[in-house]
Each structure stands twice: as C-alpha cells, then as structure tokens.
Design goal:
With 464 residues, the chain is of the alpha/beta class. 38% of the residues lie in helices and 15% in strands. The strands form 4 sheets. The chain has a 7-stranded mixed β-sheet with strand order 4-12-11-10-7-5-6, with helices on both faces. A 4-stranded mixed β-sheet has the order 1-2-3-15. A 3-stranded antiparallel β-sheet has the order 13-14-16, with no helix packed on it. The radius of gyration is 22 Å and the shape is globular. Substrate binds at residues 69, 160, 295, 329, 415.
C-alpha cells in the first residue's frame, strides 16, 4: 500500500492518530481517532509543499511561517536542491563513513571549514546528537589532556540544546526536562543575557555585561570541574525568541579563555543566515571552540548535523592509542544524500547573495508587520535578521494553542511559544506572501483575544 496525495483530512487524521506517535504532542489533545477533530489542536494532513506553502490533502494552503520547525531556508521543493538529490541518488545513496569516504562529505567538510574557520567536521543526523557530540568531545579532550575532572558543563537559563538524555542536561526548559530529571546529569545554569531583563535605564549591552558577570563568578569557582560552556548565540529560540547583545558572546569568549573552558556555540537554529549573518556568533567577532549545526544545514530537506572544532581539540585525540580517539558513531554519519543537499544549500547562498537580499526582504516584511508591532497588546516587538517575535500581554489561557488554530483558519502555520508569538519564515517571501503572513498573524491575534477574557497568567505549558 502506498500513500496517496488525496483523501479526506479526517481519514488521514484517524489513521495517523492510530499509527503515529507525534513529536512534542499530548496525543489526547488531538481528540479520539474516530471522534471529531479537536477544535483547539487540529491535526492537518499535508500532501505536498512548494515554496513557502504547505498544501493539505483537501487542497487548502498554509504559509509555513515557522519554516517547519526552523529547518527550511529557501522554500519547499527548491529545484536546485531537488536536482542535486536526484543526481546523488543515481550515484551513491549511502555508505558507512568508517573506513570509507565520498565526495559529498569531503566537499561539505571543506566548505564548512572555509565558512567557519573551524574544521574536522563530525556528522550526525539531528541537532540533539550534535550537542551530545560537542559535549562528549569537550570532556574527552580534557581527559586526553590529563584533566579528567573537567567533565561538567554550564549553560544559560532558558537554554535549549535538544532532548536526548545528554542534551537535556544542558537544556533548561522545564516541560521538556521535568519527567526525565532522574535520568539526566543536570548542568548548572547561569543568568540569561535576554535583553528583556533590562532594569531601569539599562541597555541590552548592560544586561549582557551583568549576565557575563554571573558566568564569570561561576567559572571562577568551578572551572576546574568544567569542560565547556554552551550557548545559543544571539537568540535563545525555544524559550521564546529571547535575544541578546553580541557583547555577551565577546565577554563569554574572554571568560572561557581565561578559565580554560571550551565555548560551544549551538547554531542549530540560528545558523545559515537566520540572524542576518551566516552564523550568529560572527556578529560578535569571536571564534568558538565548537560549533553545532543542523536544521537549515540541508535547506530543510534531510536530517543532518555537524560539529566543527579547533585543531587543538582534534590534535588531542590524534594518537597511536585507539582509546584516545573519538569513537562515537551513528549508522548514517555523513549520509551522502544529506551532504549533497547541504552542498546545494551552500551553493544557493553563494549564487543568490542571500544574506544581502535578506536585508531588503526583512525590511519589506517589516513594512507589512507594522500594525502588529504597534498592537496595543504587544510588548517587546523585536527582530533579528529573519526572526520576528512579539510578547502578548494579558494573553488568555492556552493562548498558543488557540492562536495556532486561528492562524491555520487563515492559511498560516504559526505556533506561539507560551505568550510569545513569533515568525521565522523561509527566505522566499515576496510582497504577496509577506502580506498574507502579516495580515493573517494580526487577524489571528485579534480572533484569539476576542475569544477569551484575558487572564493574569498563562496556564498553558506551551509546546513549540
Ligand atoms: C532544535 C534545536 C536543537 C535540537 O535539534 P533536533 O534536531 O531537534 O534534535 C538543539 N539546539 C537548538 C538551539 C535547537 O533549536
């Protein structure tokens, strides 16, 4: 039996609810498989996608305002990525990467090194695995360097680095972590430089400086047990698009160097142009010890992650003794198809001058979003590169879920995080699609606010 592109949404929904365990989802919120579609959390069966549009089995179109969980860069079904994949599939689908190599993985590694100034790319298939790899490499580096006691990590309050057991140790989002606390070796968290934390008269740089002092105080006491500090540079996305001043990254870099602790930048969400530069940490002019990449790496087509590091780290593993090597592996490490998709993605950045074009594009989108920025219930309207966010004051209970439904009703995929509405669209919006996004986002806000009396607190445990 093969999947068909048609059929009723209800039929696919029922089959999906019986057969599939959906991610980041309380399944009961979708209603019973044979019961009515849950009003507050509909399940939509997608049949196809093109550019910024997702099309359901009944032909309804939804603008992908969150790039399918921050993965898609240039729209769905991009012809250049598609033809690179078809070509690769006709040559080499997959091979293991221990004892063998291939052109796509070599070329991608060379190009990522040229773009970041770090190298020795190590591959996995998702972001959480990239986090695991960076943490394991860092601790193993210190062990090889004769300091096995340096095996703990420090992270930011509200940080998110994935949900496997190791990554959860540096993820500070209660709903993802609570149930698994006994399984996880929790890291210390230090103050977030979130610019919204400004106290009377403070600038974003002042907040950054204050947060860096917190990190510095912690490192001063604990650097001998600490392998690495991990940070999402410039935007802590999963906690609600918390943005900070690049000064924080400069101070963190200096502190990590002074105390002999690795700096890991998790560019999984913010890499590949989201914040306006190819990589977010570049806005601070710093060189980290590790970079984690995933999500946009393949333009949003196939799962792939990479960790890049310094020669110093690499050299500490290079030895006659096998046990001093980095023996981590995944079956699909360096999958040729995924690497080809990534190469095609990097080609688009070069050929289409994407970062410069995005400056213009973001300005155009901002024009359409002006009424939302100015809405009386919006606070902290903010944008960095191609990421927009708005905090809703007095948001009604279950704001995120209700808003998402009103957005779907208007042909728009937007999923707020708690009381923070955000948009992270593919880099292909034109006047018509930007207007659709802006008008739909505003109308969905009005509809959500009209539906319920505001409550003083948001009782929802929101899921991005
Ligand atoms: C999404 C994300 C991850 C985890 O990536 P997965 O592919 O979902 O495992 C890690 N870090 C950040 C900053 C992310 O946004």
């Amino acid at each position: 039996m093969t999947a068909t592109l048609t059929g009723s949404n209800d039929a696919w929904r029922a089959r999906s609810l019986r057969a599939v365990w959906h991610p980041c989802t309380q399944m009961k919120a979708h209603g019973a498989p044979d019961g009515p579609q849950a009003d507050s959390t509909p399940l939509i069966a997608i049949a196809s996608a093109e550019g910024p549009w997702l099309v359901d089995v009944e032909g309804r179109r939804y603008l992908d305002g969150i790039s399918s969980w921050w993965t898609n860069l240039f729209g769905h079904g991009h012809p250049a990525i598609r033809s690179a994949l078809v070509d690769q599939l006709s040559r080499l689908d997959h091979t293991m990467l221990a004892g063998l190599t291939h052109a796509p993985v070599v070329e991608l590694s060379e190009r990522l090194a040229a773009l970041t100034g770090l190298g020795h790319a190590f591959y996995a298939s998702d972001g959480a695995s990239a986090t695991e790899i960076a943490l394991k490499m860092s601790a193993h580096y210190w062990r090889n360097a004769g300091k096995p006691g340096k095996n703990r990590f420090v992270a930011l309050q509200g940080g998110y680095h994935g949900e496997t057991a190791g990554a959860l140790g540096v993820t500070d989002i209660a709903i993802f972590r609570e149930a698994y606390a006994p399984l996880v070796r929790l890291s210390t968290t230090v103050a977030s430089p979130d610019a919204r934390g400004a106290r009377g008269g403070e600038s974003a740089a002042d907040v950054a400086h204050r947060a860096a002092r917190d990190l510095g105080a912690w490192l001063a006491e604990h650097h001998e047990e600490t392998a690495a500090f991990i940070v999402e540079p410039l935007v802590q996305c999963a906690t609600g698009m918390a943005m900070h001043d690049p000064a924080y990254l400069r101070e963190a870099r200096a502190l990590c160097s002074a105390f002999g602790v690795h700096l890991v930048v998790d560019e999984i969400a913010v890499g590949f142009g989201r914040t306006g530069t190819m990589f977010a940490h570049q806005q601070a002019g710093i060189r980290p010890d590790f970079i984690c990449l995933s999500k946009g790496l393949t333009g949003g087509t196939l799962p792939l992650a990479a960790v890049l590091t310094t020669d110093a780290v690499y050299d500490a593993f290079y030895d006659d003794d096998a046990a001093r090597g980095f023996l981590h592996s995944h079956s699909y490490t360096g999958n040729p198809l995924a690497c080809r998709a990534a190469l095609a993605t990097l080609d688009i950045f070069e050929r289409e001058n994407v970062l410069a074009v995005n400056v213009e594009r973001a300005g155009m989108v901002d024009g359409f979003l002006a009424p939302l920025h100015a809405h009386e219930r919006v606070r902290n309207a903010r944008r960095l590169g191609m990421i927009w966010a708005w905090d809703i004051v007095g948001a009604p209970a279950n704001f995120a879920r209700r808003y998402a439904r009103h957005a779907l009703d208007r042909g728009l995929l937007l999923r707020p995080i708690g009381a923070t509405l955000y948009a992270m669209p593919p880099y292909v919006l034109e006047d018509d699609t930007a207007r659709h996004l802006a008008d739909g986002a505003l109308a969905a806000l009005e509809a959500t606010l009209a539906e319920a009396e505001p409550s003083l607190f948001d009782d929802e445990k929101a899921l991005p």
